[in-house]
Amino acid sequence: QVQVVESGGGLVQAGGSLRLSCTTSGLTFEDYGMAWFRQAPGKEREAISCIDWRGIDTYYTDPAKGRFIVSRDNIKDTMTLQMNSLKVEDTAMYYCAIGRYRSCLGTWSKGGPDFPYWGQGTQVTVSS
Questions:
Q1: Which residue, 41, 78, 93, 102, has most beta carbons within 10 Å?
Q2: Quick check: helix, strand or coil at residue 91?
Q3: What DSSP designation does 102 have?
Q4: In which element (H, E) is residue 70 found?
C-alpha cells in the first residue's frame, strides 16, 4: 500500500520561510516524478512544482518561481519544498503527489490521472 506523508507546514509571518517535506512508502521512490500542489479555502487546486525522478529537471508555476525550490533525496526517499519570501496569498493546504512517470509531463500542472497517489496535506498559514 502506497503512503504519502507531508510535513513541515505551520504558521509563519509574511517574508518568512518554511520547508515542507514529503516522504513515501510502498513504492520505489526513485522511479517516479513528484509534484507539489496547493489548495486554499474556496479556491481550486493549484500546481506549484514538479521534479523528475533524478531530481535534475524541475518545473515551477508562476506563484512559485523565484521563491520556492523543490528538491529530492533518493537515498532518504524524501522530497522537499523550500519556500522563501512567503506571502499571505501562499496560505493553503499543500499536497505532495507521486507521478505515474519518471518525468514531469507537459501536462503535469493539471494534476489528475498523471498523479495517482496523494498525501493528506500540510497546512501553511502566512500572517501579515
A1: 93
A2: coil
A3: S
A4: strand 68-73
For residue 95, the surrounding DSSP H or E stretch is: strand 92-98
Instruction: Report whether pLDDT(23) > 90.
Output: yes
The string of DSSP letters for 19-30 reads EEEEEEESS-GG
Answer positive or negative: Cα dihedral of 20, 26, 32, 36: negative
Q: Strand 10-13 vs strand 122-127: parallel, antiparallel, or unpaired?
A: parallel
Phi (first) and psi of residue 12, to 5 degrees? -145, 150
For residue 77, the 8-state DSSP code is: T
**Which residues contact residue 47 at a Cβ distance below 8 angstroms, ignoring those fewer than 6 apart?**
35, 36, 37, 61, 108, 109, 110, 111
Q: Please tell me the distance from the alpha carbon of residue 87 to that of residue 57, in angstroms, as a whole number.
A: 26
Residue 106, pLDDT score: 86
Residue 112 has pLDDT above 90, yes or no: no
CA–CA gap between residue 85 and residue 98 (Å, rounded): 26
